[in-house]
Structure formats: C-alpha cells, structure tokens
C-alpha cells in the first residue's frame, strides 16, 4: 500500500465496502457520540467520515487528535445505515472504521477556524493565509482560478495564438502608474523596473513577424489598493495581433471571454458577443456616469437642460447661464414615493452634495389623474414637468432625480446614484453577465495647470484619421482605443497601436514631448517602427477581475492565492522588509529616513 493513501477523501463509495484503505488529510472536525469518535477527514478533493470506538487498538491515539491535525489512517470501509446516509457528500454512503493512525503533523491552537463560516478580520486571514486557504470557499475560488486560466489558454491556442514569454526585468516605462524599481548591482546607480505590462514587448513581437501572441502575464504596478485592484501585482491575458482592425480584435477576444463566462458562470445568463453594444466614451459618461457601466441596470441618464433654462427653479436656471454646464436626469422607474426620494437625498448628502432635486408622479389627490410632485415640480410648473416626463418615458409611480453643473464635477456621483437606484428598486438583473465595448476614447484633455494639452488616455493608440486628425483641435481627436466592461467592472483594455513614427512624434508633440524625449523614453519601440512595422493591435484582460466576477465576490483578494493587504504589505512573509547593510553596500545604495 502507498505510504500515505490508497484513495483520496472524495473517492470511496459503496463499491469499496469491505476494503482496507489508507487515507491522509486534515481533521476537519471531531464529534464524540457516546464514546464513539467521529472524524471528518478532509483533503483537497473532499471529506470522508472515519470513526473509532474503544474496540479499536488505536482509540487512545485517536482521542488526542484535534482540529487541523494532519493524520494518516488505515481502516475498513463500512456502509452507513440507510438513515445515516449523507446525500450531500460523494462519500456519504460509507464510513471508515479506524484500525491504525499516524500523526503526520500536529497543529497548535488555531488563530482561525477552518471548519464553519465564521468571519475573521482580513488582517488575521492574510497573516495566516495558509490556514485561510484550507477553507472550503477559498479552495473553491483557487481551483476556479486555475481552471479559468487553463480554459483561457486552450481557447487562445484554438484561435491560432501561441504563448510567448516577455521579460520580467526591463526598463522603466511610464504607463499610467508608478514602477517598482530594481537596483542593478553590475551597474551602480542604475535601475531596472518590473513591467507594468508587456506593452512594448508585445508590440515588438509583432514587428518581429509573429502574427498572434498571447501570454498569461504578471504585471507590476505600485498603485493605491482598491477592492477590485491589487496594489502590487496582478495577472492578465495579454494578446496582440498583426494586420487587424479594431473590430477584428473584438471578434477574436469576445467569444473567448463569453465562453469562459458560460463555462464557469454558474448558469447565469451571458449575453452573446453579437449583442455586446459598442458605446462611445462620451455616451457612456452621459448615460451611465462611468466608462465601465453595469448594463444589467436599464437606467440611462439624459440631458434635460432645456426644461430648466429660464425656469422658476433659480438654482438650475442660473447654473445654466455659465459656460459648459448642463442638467442631467436620472430616471427612477417605480421610485415615485416621497420616502424613496428622501432616501436618495440622504445618499447625495453622504456624497458631499446638498441634495438632489427630484420629481415624482402620483395620483392627483382630487382624482383628476396623474400629477407631478416634489419641490422641483412646484418651481418649474406643469408644462415643463410634463415635457421632462415624456422625454424620460416615465409614468405613474415613477420618479426622476436631477444633478447640474459641469459634467466632470457630478458625473461620478450621478453614476453612483444610478447604481443605488437600480439596486434599491430591484431593476438590476442579478443572474446575468452584461458586456459592453467602450470605444472612441479621447486622446487628449486640457492641462488646466500648465495650459496646453496632456494625454487623457493611452498615448500609443492610433488616432482615428491618422496624421490628418492631429492637424485640428486636439480635444476632437479620438483614438482606436477600447475597454470591455462587465457588470460595472473594466475587464479588458486595448487599442490599435500607433505604429508610424511620424504620427507618434506628432501625437507626443501636441502633449508637449519633443522627438528627442520620445526617443529617449521609448527608443526601442520607436527604432523598431522604422523597419517595416505592421499595423497591429490587441488588448489585455484582467484575470483577477474575471475570476472575482465568476466567484461572485466584490473583493479581489478572495481570488488571489497570497495577496497583499490594503497597505501593500505581506503580513505572512513580512514584506516589504528592511535590507541588510551588506546588500545596500553591494548595490551602493543609502536609505534616507522617512520624512517627519
């Protein structure tokens, strides 16, 4: 017999009754039923109930074991009585009578329990992650992650892609976040960087003549943490293709992701790729208040400025006299009650606003039909409120909320309000994955501090219209850049690349970078583009976020094996740590004390 096990803890069935078997695993829990000890023995694959009574030669040893001890047992498989069968377990028809036991690893007093659904502080869970990972939900999440990555690889190979590895140590390259720098021992005073993404390398792979590339790539960014973002490193499905248009990229990656969500989505509806809308960045901001909209929520915001211009509601009327301002309405079907409107007003105040204007439509008290109610309705009169109702397509029992000013000052809060309204009124479909391509990103924005223009989005995107587009107003320039949103999260970001040096130099010139600066920062790529670069484009899909959605959790740390905490610390391995003086001397580095 094998030294540790003849079967896993999920393998035994009624067909094994009478056999002598060997199992190894962890003591999930111990129960004492009138002198008979029952142990749920757990390994990665499942649970088997084993039991021991005073007739067993090792009863005294079995009495000593405690939760999470790692043990090996030998025993005889017996059938459970019909009324004791556990249909929830694959091994629920049998139990194993213990004849021999070996303690492989005793456990000290546990800082967190593996058995049960107790909640523990995140700091405790991360400090003892190896225990946290033994829990059923975490085992399930990590298995899901592994299966998703394997399925992505299969689907990419099936589409004619090959996986190539790019360097982990490279040159620093500003890509929207801070680099992690790595000092060079052989070149004192100089530093490598961990790649924020394989962006330049994958483009160079295209220049090198490899038509389709992908990689499950680690990326490193020194970022502030959020619930849906790791503060140090993450993994992405990175891909690039030559001789393609934007639509070609969509047609390639969409069925891959749709297939993953269908395979691992637990039966939730997955919109077919042909149904994924393509929404301009500007429209997404207008309709949803975000460039990663949750389309499970049917609410679309609308501009209603004309109904308030010159109206009796002085706050909005005066606001509209200022350049660049507008009033937007958030429809709220079924939200037509004073109580709900007051709740939304309280939400707005928590977000730092004095409140939100609202109108709701109800039965008139005199029985004459539908009437508009609320402070706004009284101020602007029945004609304007009726025009608003018709524009928004609302009716009896519905409401609308209003925010005004320059869009940049209120769009984010409007988007949050839309989400809250959808949740509170049960408008948001829960059992669905809803995708949308966000396209036509602006390349430039005004630099309010220095004057001139700066990059608003990816500077390496090909401008729509090429060189000709760069001759006009920079704020009108749109890039062949795109994101894929799903249920309120950005899953994919990509672009058709600017592969022509003359267009790249002009694009950077508008943002205040001379040709010498571009060559200095991106010399490897710019030089390569001088030797017959093909048109190319691609994207990257966040593995962690994909698995987070599939696991139905809102915290990305639930699907990462060994994540950092909110302060970018590894409590288990004590990182970051102070280097030894010998290390610093060898690297010719000196650490300055922190600023007071």
Describe this protein's structure.
With 596 residues, the protein is an alpha+beta fold. Helices cover 29% and strands 24% of the residues. It is built from 16 helices and 24 strands. It has helices spanning 59-64, 122-127, 129-132, 136-158, 199-207, 246-264, 281-288, 314-319, 338-350, 375-392, 407-424, 466-469, 501-510, 515-528, 543-550, 581-587; strands spanning 20-33, 36-42, 47-52, 70-79, 94-105, 162-163, 180-183, 191-194, 212-220, 233-242, 269-270, 278-280, 302-303, 326-332, 357-363, 370-373, 399-405, 432-433, 435-439, 444-446, 453-455, 481-486, 489-496, 536-542. It has an 8-stranded mixed β-sheet, with helices on both faces. It has a 5-stranded mixed barrel with strand order 1-2-3-5-4. Strands 13-14-17-15-16 form a 5-stranded antiparallel β-sheet. It is globular. The chain starts with 19 loop residues before the first strand and ends in a 9-residue tail after the last helix. The mean pLDDT is 94.
Strand order of the largest sheet: 6-9-10-24-23-22-19-12
Count of DSSP H/I helices: 16
Q: Helicity level, as a percent range?
A: 25-40%
Find the structural class using helix and strand composition: alpha+beta
Mean pLDDT: 94
Distance N to C terminus: 65 Å
Strand % is 15-25%
Question: Ranges with pLDDT <50 over ≥5 residues?
Answer: none
Shape: globular
- Radius of gyration over all CA atoms, rounded: 30 Å
Q: Major sheet: size, sense and barrel closure?
A: 8 strands, mixed
Number of strands: 24
């Amino acid at each position: 017999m094998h030294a540790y096990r003849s079967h896993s803890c999920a393998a035994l069935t009624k067909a094994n009754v009478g056999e002598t078997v060997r199992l190894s695993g962890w003591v999930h829990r111990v129960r004492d039923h009138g002198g008979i000890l029952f142990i749920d023995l757990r390994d990665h694959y499942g649970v088997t109930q084993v039991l021991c009574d005073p007739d067993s030669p090792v009863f005294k040893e079995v009495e000593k074991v405690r939760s999470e001890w790692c043990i090996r047992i030998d025993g005889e498989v017996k059938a459970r009585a019909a009324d004791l069968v556990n249909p929830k377990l694959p091994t629920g028809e049998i139990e194993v009578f213990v004849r021999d036991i070996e303690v492989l690893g005793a456990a000290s007093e546990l800082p967190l329990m593996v058995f049960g659904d107790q909640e523990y502080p995140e700091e405790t869970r991360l400090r003892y992650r190896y225990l946290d990972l033994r829990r059923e939900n975490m085992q399930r999440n990590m298995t899901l992650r592994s299966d998703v990555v394997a399925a992505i690889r299969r689907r990419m190979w099936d589409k004619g892609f090959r996986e190539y590895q790019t360097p982990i140590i490279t040159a620093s390259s500003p890509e929207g976040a801070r680099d992690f720098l790595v000092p060079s021992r052989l070149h004192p005073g100089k530093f490598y960087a961990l790649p924020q993404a394989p962006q330049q390398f994958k483009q160079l792979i295209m220049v090198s003549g490899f038509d389709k590339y992908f990689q499950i790539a680690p990326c490193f960014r020194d970022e502030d943490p959020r619930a849906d973002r790791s503060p140090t490193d993450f993994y992405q499905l990175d891909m690039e293709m030559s001789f393609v248009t934007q639509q070609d990229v969509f047609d390639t990656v969409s069925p891959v992701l749709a297939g993953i969500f269908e395979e691992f989505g637990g039966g939730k509806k997955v919109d077919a790729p042909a149904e994924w809308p393509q929404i301009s960045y500007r429209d997404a901001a207008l309709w949803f208040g975000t460039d990663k909209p949750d389309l499970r929520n049917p609410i679309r915001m609308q501009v209603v400025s004309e109904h308030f211009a010159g109206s009796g509601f002085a706050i909005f009327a005066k606001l509209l006299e200022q350049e660049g301002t507008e009033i937007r309405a958030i429809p709220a079907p079924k939200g037509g009650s004073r109580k709900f409107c007051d709740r939304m007003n309280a939400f707005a105040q928590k977000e730092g606003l004095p409140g939100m204007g609202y109108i709701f439509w109800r039965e008139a008290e005199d029985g004459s039909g539908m009437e508009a109610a609320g402070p706004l309705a009284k101020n602007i009169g029945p004609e304007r409120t009726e025009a608003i109702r018709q524009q928004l397509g609302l009716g009896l029992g519905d409401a609308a909320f209003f925010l005004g000013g320059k869009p940049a000052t209120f769009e984010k809060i409007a988007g949050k309000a839309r989400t809250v309204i959808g949740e509170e009124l049960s408008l948001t479909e829960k059992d669905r994955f809803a995708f949308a391509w966000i396209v036509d990103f602006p390349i430039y924005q005004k630099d309010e501090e220095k004057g001139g223009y700066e990059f608003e989005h990816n500077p390496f995107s090909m401008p729509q219209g090429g060189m000709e587009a760069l001759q006009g107003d920079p704020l009108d320039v749109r890039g062949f850049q795109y994101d894929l949103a799903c249920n309120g999260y950005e899953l994919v970001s990509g672009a058709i690349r600017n592969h022509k040096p003359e267009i790249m130099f002009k694009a950077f010139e508008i943002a205040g970078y001379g040709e010498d600066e571009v060559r200095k920062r991106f010399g490897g790529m710019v030089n390569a583009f001088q030797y017959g670069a093909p048109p190319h484009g691609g994207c990257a899909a966040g593995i962690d976020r994909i698995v987070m959605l599939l696991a139905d959790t809102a915290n990305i740390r639930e699907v990462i094996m060994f994540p950092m905490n909110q302060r970018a610390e590894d409590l288990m391995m004590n990182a970051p740590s102070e280097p030894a003086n010998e290390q610093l001397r060898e690297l010719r580095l000196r650490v300055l004390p922190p600023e007071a």
